[in-house]
Amino acid sequence: MKTYFPVVLALITGFGMGVSLIQGLHAQARPPVYLIADNEIRDPESYAKEYLPLAQASLRMYGAHYVAAGKGTAIDGEPPKGRVVITRWDSLEHLLRWRHSPEYEQARATGEKFAKFRVFAVDAVSP
């Protein structure tokens, strides 16, 4: 009877580790979410000086990864109205946690003095 206990304990531990590993792999397999912003800037100097440092600090704090930023180039249709920014997030939940954070709410209130924001999220395509 004493020899069965370590065997059963090892099986239960192995099963638990396997479930954890599978959950971790499944979570990694989820495609990221991209935030795309087209910010129509009315006062570029104040935008760069007062809004950008706050916004960029909050993005780093909440785990965003910059993909692109700058003036977009129209290929078909209307060109972007302002500065285009693309950031990558692990999930929509992470993105929304940042968007409604006190840090970004403060940055956004500052930014609205200098720009009009058009922001949306897009799911990445699974490979």
pLDDT averaged over residues: 87
Counted by DSSP, the helix tally is 4
CATH class of the largest domain: Alpha Beta
The helix/strand order is HEHEEHHEE
Number of domains: 2
Secondary structure class reads alpha+beta
Q: Which of globular, elongated, flat, extended, rod-shaped describes the shape? A: elongated
| Radius of gyration using CA atoms only | 22 Å
Number of strand elements: 5
Helix fraction bin: 40-55%
CATH topology of the largest domain: Alpha-Beta Plaits
CATH architecture of the largest domain: 2-Layer Sandwich
Q: Main beta sheet, described? A: 5 strands, antiparallel
**Residue fraction in strands:** 15-25%
Question: Uncertain regions: pLDDT < 50 for 5+ in a row?
Answer: none
